[in-house]
Design goal:
The protein is built from eleven helices and eleven strands. Bound molecules: NADP nicotinamide-adenine-dinucleotide phosphate.
């Protein structure tokens, strides 16, 4: 049976990918902190799991949906860089290392952009805490410079799916009449349907010539104003009160999160995937939300 190893595979993205790969007939082995998974402290166990694996996908990282306190910041950093480092070292112990290693990264690595889209070739790296995390995460990953394992960092935009992520929070806002614009509504929202993320992974597996960084974002990012309008339309809600920045700041404090997650303008385009001929099943936000919100 072909084998895939997923680290941090018990979360939103990992559970979806695990199910999909199992349906394709793969044995899926998980590395993580939960009972029954191979533990991060077990370097030899991780190496053994990685022997002859077709692919390693690393998704591990403390959620960024929290206040950026000193302690949370340290955990956000270390839960990404240390896990990546353990995996790289484990691969080096393998006699037959995995063919492909996909490491999660984030489209947040690019700067706040309201003027032009960011691509892998012409995008500018931003500044600030979450950008520093992404930079260090990718550096830890690419510093391994492996000869027998192809390495790709997935710069993922906000992943949309039914079983987790941001959708439930937006649904609640829209349902209670609070689904208007956030901030001035002009910030870009780059997103990807979780099924397209899975299809991208299959595409990258098939194309042995691809390595480096890949923007995993739908080709049609939209402004927050359009995102909220589409959401309201699909949920048949005419009214959506706007949330100005000051209100979001109070709200974020109360629920223990940061406004950056809503207000940073992420305008990211999947230039490499498009050039390589990848076809998105959900290229527009209307396609994606109609599918995700159908019957719910
Ligand atoms: N979802 C998105 O929109 C999005 C967008 C861009 C990038 N990403 C990145 O993609 C990855 C997967 O996203 P997701 O939405 O599936 O995240 P998630 O649901 O929060 O899952 C992440 C997994 O990381 C592991 N983890 C959490 N805290 C950890 C810690 N302190 N130390 C070690 N492992 C820890 C957990 O696995 P165990 O409990 O099994 O250890 C958890 O299931 C994350 O790294 C995220 O930053 C996500």
């Amino acid at each position: 049976m072909p084998k895939i190893v997923i680290a941090g595979g018990t979360g939103f993205v990992g559970q979806y990918l695990s199910k999909k790969f199992q349906h394709l007939g793969y044995q899926v082995i998980l590395i993580g902190r939960k009972e029954g998974n191979i533990r991060w402290t077990d370097l030899m166990g991780i190496s053994t799991a990685l022997e002859n694996a077709e692919m390693l996908i690393n998704l591990a990282g403390k959620s960024v949906n929290c206040r950026y306190t000193t302690s949370n910041k340290a955990k956000i950093f270390s839960s990404r860089t240390e896990t990546t480092s353990i995996l790289g070292r484990a691969i080096k112990h393998c006699d037959h290392p995995p063919v492909l290693w996909l490491n999660a990264s984030t489209a947040t690595i690019y700067r706040h952009a309201e003027d032009r889209p960011m691509t892998e070739s012409s995008g500018e790296i931003g500044t600030g805490f979450s950008v520093e995390v992404a930079k260090k995460w990718e550096k830890t990953f690419f510093d391994f410079n492996l000869t027998q394992t192809r390495q790709i960092a997935l710069r993922m935009a906000i992943v949309l799916g039914t079983e987790g992520g941001v959708i439930q929070s937006f649904k609640n806002l829209v349902r209670f009449g609070l689904g208007g614009i956030q901030g001035n509504g002009k910030q870009y929202f780059s997103w990807i349907h979780i099924e397209d993320l899975f299809q991208i992974i299959l595409f990258l597996q098939k194309h042995a010539e691809i390595n480096g960084v890949i923007n995993c974002a739908a080709p049609n990012p939209i402004m927050n104003r359009i995102f909220m309008e589409t959401f309201r339309h699909i949920m048949h809600r005419k009214i959506g009160l706007p949330s100005p920045k000051w209100l979001l700041e109070i709200g974020a404090l109360l629920i223990g999160t940061e406004t950056e997650l809503l207000l940073k303008s992420r305008w990211v385009i999947p230039e490499r995937l498009t050039e390589l001929g990848f076809t998105f099943q959900f290229p527009t936000i209307t396609n994606a939300l109609s599918d995700i919100l159908a019957g719910r």
